[in-house]
Design goal:
mainly beta; six-stranded antiparallel β-sheet
Length: 289
Amino acid sequence: MTDRALVVVRAGALTTVQDRGRPGYAHLGVPRSGALDPSAAALVNRLVGNPPDAAVLETTLDGCALRPRSSVTVAVGGAPCPVSVGGRPAAWGAPVVVPPGELLEVGTATAGVRGYVAVCGGIAVEPVLGSRATDLLSGLGPAPLAVGMVLPLGVPAGPPARVDGVPQPRPPAELVLRVTPGPRDDWFTARAVWDLTTRVYRVAAASNRIGLRTEGPVLERARPGELPSEGMVLGAVQVPPDGRPVVFLADHPTTGGYPVIAVVRAADLPAAAQALPGTPVRFVPVRRR
């Protein structure tokens, strides 16, 4: 039994292991997966001295609780939340030492959706196709955390960052997504394209790691029927039969038969990962590069 490990005391609503994902396997039907807010994941890794591709924990809304078997340095970032060690308040967004056997409690987010917990040495579960990321759609990678699970840790790569804390962007009060029209915008009426880029949508409660679902104006089709299945990319805005756009996130399917009216710029997707249900969403058209 190794001392370099974490024991899961409280798993939270959905806590998964994530890293940069497994790009390059779409032709095998495997999406990239990885952290939905990669900037936040990279930052907490840097705070504890890990390389940017080290595996972290991604929490959803209500955090998690962990007990290390040996002394570890951790950092919690992403969605702001209370943090405690052994029942005493600890810093969020900064390196924190957790002694062996003490309880690290990552609390409920006060804003945003997804928090990130980095531990010195990284989460060292067995990689699959070069990544330790949990992919909820394909089932690859480790299972979501459960009470009693033991997570092995790697060897620390370097010292923690010498900072008291670093600025992190707050979750959006309004989600602005820049979109490039197409490739199937011709499957929709001119009014539908106008509605997408001028009306306000809201984040739906059914959103998850696969896609951000929206509530708002129904987009009218100009053409009936469905497409043969074709490749799907991160950020694709697919329109299912109910007419309400879905923005594909990290665990999206690699193919689909519903038309894609637009594609969101990759730089805007981390904010989508932090948008709570009910958050206003605006799709802003930009020119193709």
